[in-house]
Amino acid sequence: MYVVESKGGAIVCMLFSLFFLGTWPAILTLLERRGRLPQHTYLDYTITNLLAAVIIAFTFGEIGKSTPEQPNFLIQLSQDNWPSVLFAMAGGIVLSVGNLSTQYAWAFVGLSVTEVITSSITVVIGTTLNYFLDDKINRAEILFPGVGCFLIAVCLGSAVHASNAADNKAKLGNLSDVHKNGTGAGTSVTIVETCPNAVAMKDPENGTGTKERAEFGTAEFLVELESRRSIKVFGKSTFIGLSITFFAGVCFSLFSPAFNLATNDQWHTLKHGVPHLSVYTAFFYFSASCFVVATILNISFLYYPILKLPRSSLKAYLSDWNGRGWAFLAGLLCGFGNGLQFMGGQAAGYAAADAVQALPLVSTFWGILIFGEYRKSSRRTYVFLVGMLSMFIAAVGVLMASSGHRK
Description:
Elements: H1 7-33, H2 38-59, H3 73-76, H4 82-109, H5 111-133, H6 140-173, H7 191-194, H8 197-200, H9 219-228, H10 238-264, H11 279-303, H12 314-319, H13 324-348, H14 350-353, H15 360-371, H16 379-401
């Protein structure tokens, strides 16, 4: 099998992983804003996410000659390595629950803030655990200041969302009574009746529509967006979105340490003479458990939806081809992104590989470019946003600088 051994090769894996993992959330957000049910999207996503793991296992995991110390993927499938397999599967379960949670969090607090908070929690908890699991191969005097930068980014991310939410509330408050049904923080917008132009406005995300187009950042744009999206957020509490986001962050903080235990057996759960799971075998089991959990939960959500989403069915899902190709692409990007992160982490330490949690730098770029996030916001929001991104840039550089070398 192919093994990444150099620090340079590990960093290349991390950089590709960073781009892939920062891009796939933008694709799923795009589909939700076009009105596709998240249950349909996530079921499509899980299929190609598992496919990516299978491709990696049968290519990188089968390249070269198999040895007793480093057996190829197919040989490891028949070995007595179930303690490590269970760790890998546990990592896949928490990742699946975390990814599922972020689908709903994106609608409430936006792509950028969701990714910043979840990634920062992942680094603060997950990187600390990986540092000790990896027998401290990363330089603590460099690593932990980077973790501190991520922690500051969490606080700034929450401030960005609170400030931007206040900006949006003020914009909606300036709409005339003709455009609103009710007043105050719990205002609900009746799209078809109160904003007839919303149907005629051009969709800024898929290029369809007629003559009129709401400008990014305006109250009319927010009303139009609410009319299209599958998850309605007007009148919902900010606390709901942030609670989902923090829960997802805790889930994400556990998957990498679990994968670390699966591939390096720090707790000595394997029998004597049984080789450690390779990255590719562990990633296969990791993705398989992720697929099973996601499938069960999303099929349940088809018939018993949450957050007042409309009910659906397997028949409706199978016939829904609107955006299916994009959902398949998102699954591939996430799958290859996670695989590359683990390949880099096995070489340079999983704590250093958590530098890919700077994916909000990529997600924020897509959020601003595609979704018009933070357009026409207040100066206070921009100050918090710049501070948040600056902390991320500093954290990425510091974490990569802490890279070690696994013996």
